[in-house]
Design brief:
heterodimer; A: 447 residues; mainly alpha; 22 helices; B: 346 residues; Rossmann fold; 2 domains; two-stranded parallel sheet; 13 helices; elongated
């Protein structure tokens, strides 16, 4: 079917979308405010234009047309995991784990890079990549200070690991959540497909970064060991009881995610239930929790989803899907490979969350109408958005955090050139491996 | 990126390599006393003391007494009947309160004649007063916490000074080491939460003493918070001192504030509880915050939001006759708001 566009509708919505996007990427403007302004403008304009909507009770586009249940469910999942992570973090669980890992490395520079890299990968997979970068990055600076090591190679490796960890579970990064929902990928399937590639890319990153930064073994292992032994893993734990409870609730929630399909409940439900149990067992007041919640992030998603739905209502997404279908080769794997690299490049330039939100519905549309493998397209989009975010310093929020930690504590900056030289190389290596990985899984009939 | 969250994570790591002051024990309260006189606040003191004794499972002495600033002879003549009435009130209160066991100790009461005789046998001079006898009793009875009703009515320095002559006398009595829990006429209940205020100028040892004492009031349900206050005047003093060091003209208040807040955070962060203690305080794992500004405003803000059962403040000037200014401002503010305030000496 050929998509027919109404020029007025398209121009108006595109102008709103472009202005919003300029607001989002402009550092002088609050990106949440830009998204909310865009959402409000799009809502008002679409209602005013009286665009027909067969699902609306009035027959025309209304506020309900612009926010779907799936969007609310994604937001609930994000809020739930934010609360769980925040309470667990304040109980000192992650700090404890990070210092234990530091001690296990015995202060050896090479071990430290590998152990902290692996820790970042695990925390990114189970918590989220921004918190992982904040926790491991902060300790990296302290540990390097004590061990007289240059923190830069460690931060760069950890940044790389947030990207690798980001593809391991469904809750590891926001693009995963956004793309998995419409493609109906469950937690276990995500883990089976994503985790092996995450571990593989971690190993490749070590192979690239250890020689690149010339990270050698400790000359005086005993001195280094004694230096890290000075760290106290219980320092951030104010209450053992709260600490134990956080671990229990965190474990139950992860099990809930794993068995969500068998239990017949959505991931959002598990996250919200986990968050409620966490609040109750932590004894913290709701005011305290709400005060700490990242409402900016939640409001940003709300605005973004409304805007994407506005593009859908005026058929811009259908049009792009149609154009994409015309360009893409007929072969599923080649089409997915093009998408993987294309989305990766776009995600390096544009915020990967915006890319995921926009391309999720487009790719689903293309896959359904043209008969491509939906799962293959979904994974190409997920891997592309995650890995592409790692090419440039502004591609993924975790990169922004990592660089800020380094600059705040040492005054050292990593420029675009150095970033692309190190992360870019790792990203290209990853994309090549991902292409092969997808090809193998596709030929084995996984998708 | 959330700068605030990053700061929080970094602060939690900050203490990781610093030596910790591990608190592994705290004084267990076994004996509480309260002084009952005929005032509203005196009866509030009895109610608060009995709640506390039941909660902490301690011995309770109800000391029935009145008008301690007057010479003994006058008290006997004027208040004999009143003290008997008060003793009856105390006995009825104990009978009417489930599970409460208390010793009623009238300094001068229904055993007036006997006390009178004893007094004349023991007294050294005509100047000896009931105040002296009360001090002697508290000293020898082993009371660790003495609950006292405070007649504080309006917000002025004069009223603070005349907050009850014997209350002030007791507070200033250097031989007494009991901690004074002051109860106003506005409140007769004691919620299970502890809020403690410490000043940036207090020594770590003083802060630890307060921490320990606060722990001795905590049960497994206690919500326990410590607030470190960096006072405006201390910030100004430091900023002025730094001018003379840097030979610049304008005091950098922001930099001084940041420095003091960081110091305070490090001090509070360096105090750690051993697990056995931690297990006692389940719900209220002690939390701490540092605030800068005017003492009274910070105290008011926290009291309004936390509604604490007891507010703790430690007076570090117990060897002189007055509370130190920090303790005085906190105590006054807390009592004015109608909450219970414990002045810690130990």
């Amino acid at each position: 079917m050929v998509v027919t566009l109404d020029p007025l509708h398209v121009v108006v919505v595109l102008i709103i979308f472009l202005l919003t996007y300029i607001g989002i990427i402009n550092p002088k403007f609050d990106k949440t405010l830009a998204a909310l302004l865009g959402a409000v403008a799009a809502t008002i304009v679409l209602i005013f234009l009286r665009i027909p909507d067969s699902h609306a009770s009035t027959g025309y586009v209304s506020e309900q047309s612009l926010l779907h249940f799936t969007d609310a469910s994604i937001i609930a999942l994000i809020i739930g995991t934010l609360i769980i992570v925040d309470i667990a973090q304040s109980s000192g669980v992650f700090h404890f784990l990070a210092i234990k890992i530091l001690k296990a490395s015995k202060g050896d520079p090479q071990n430290l890079l590998i152990y902290f890299g692996a820790l970042t990968l695990i925390l990114s997979a189970l918590v989220n990549n921004i918190s992982a970068m904040m926790i491991v990055g902060s300790l990296t600076i302290l540990a390097c200070e004590r061990l007289d090591l240059d923190p830069k190679p460690y931060i760069i490796t950890e940044l790389s690991m947030t990207t690798a960890g980001g593809i391991m579970t469904l809750i590891s990064s926001v693009p995963n959540i956004i793309i998995s929902q419409p493609f109906e990928i469950d937690f276990v399937t995500f883990l089976i497909i994503g985790a092996p590639l995450g571990i593989l890319t971690m190993v490749i990153s070590f192979v690239i970064f250890i020689p690149m930064f010339n990270i050698r073994r400790a000359k005086d292992p005993e001195v280094m060991r004694l230096k890290v032994e000075e760290f106290d893993e219980w320092s951030a734990v104010k209450s053992r009881t709260a600490f134990n409870r956080s671990i229990i609730v965190l474990s139950i929630t992860i099990l809930g995610f794993v068995f969500s399909q068998q239990l017949g409940v959505s991931l959002a439900m598990v996250a919200v239930a986990g968050a409620v149990i966490m609040i109750v067992t932590s004894g913290k007041k709701l005011e305290y929790i709400f005060e700490k919640l990242d409402w900016h992030l939640v409001a940003f998603f709300l605005g973004l989803f409304i805007l994407i739905n506005a593009l859908d209502i005026v058929h811009i997404l259908d049009f792009i899907a149609e154009a994409l279908a015309a360009i893409l080769p007929e072969d599923d794997f080649f089409a997915a490979t093009i998408l993987l690299w294309f989305i990766s490049v776009i995600s390096g330039i544009v915020d990967n969350i915006v890319v995921a939100a926009a391309f999720g519905p487009i790719l689903l549309d293309v896959a359904i109408t043209e008969g491509y493998s939906q799962a293959l397209f979904a994974w190409a989009a997920i891997f592309g958005a995650n890995f592409g975010g790692g090419i440039t310093p502004i591609g993924a929020p975790s990169a922004v955090v990592g660089l800020a930690i380094l600059y705040r504590k040492t005054g050292e900056k990593i420029g675009w050139g150095e970033f692309i030289k190190t992360q870019g190389l790792a990203t290209v290596a990853r994309l090549v491996i991902t292409t092969v990985y997808l090809g193998i899984l596709f030929s084995l009939g996984f998708f | 990126m959330s700068e605030k969250k990053l700061d929080e994570i970094e602060t939690m790591f900050k203490t990781a390599t610093k030596p910790k002051t591990i608190i592994d024990k705290y004084p267990v309260i076994e004996h509480i006393g309260c002084i009952l006189d005929s005032s509203t606040q005196g009866f509030n003191a009895l109610q608060v003391a009995s709640s506390l004794a039941l909660r902490l499972k301690t011995k309770l002495d109800i000391i029935v007494s009145e008008d301690f600033h007057k010479p003994l002879r006058l008290v006997l003549e004027s208040n004999d009947k009143e003290l008997e009435t008060l003793s009856t009130t105390a006995r009825d209160f104990v009978k009417g309160t489930e599970d409460l066991k208390a010793n009623i100790k009238p300094i001068i009461s229904d055993k007036v004649q006997q006390a009178f005789d004893l007094f004349f046998q023991k007294k050294a001079s005509e100047d000896e007063t009931l105040f002296g006898r009360l001090v002697e009793h508290i000293k020898t009875s082993g009371i660790q916490v003495c609950v006292l009703g405070v007649p504080l009515f309006v917000r002025s320095d004069i009223e603070w000074e005349s907050m009850g002559t014997y209350v002030l006398k007791l507070l200033r009595e250097r031989e007494l080491h009991a901690n004074w829990l002051l109860v106003s006429a506005k409140q007769n209940i004691i919620a299970d939460s502890v809020l403690a205020f410490v000043s940036v100028e207090q020594q770590p040892a003083s802060i630890i003493a307060l921490y320990r004492r606060a722990l001795s009031f905590a049960t497994e349900h206690t919500n326990f918070k410590i607030v470190g206050i960096v006072e405006d005047n201390v910030i100004e003093t430091l900023a002025r001192l730094e001018i003379s060091d840097d030979s610049s003209d304008v005091p950098d208040l922001e930099s001084a504030r940041n420095k003091l807040v960081t110091n305070m955070e490090e001090t509070l962060g360096s105090i750690q509880l051993q697990s056995e203690i931690d297990d006692v305080i389940i719900e209220g794992s002690p939390t701490w915050e540092v605030k800068s500004g005017h003492i009274a405003e910070i105290v008011r803000e926290y009291i309004e939001s936390e509604h604490p059962g007891i507010v703790f403040v430690r007076s570090v000037a117990e060897i002189s006759e007055n509370l130190d200014p920090f303790a005085e401002i906190v105590t006054r503010q807390v009592l004015q708001e109608g909450f219970n305030c414990l002045i810690v000496w130990d």
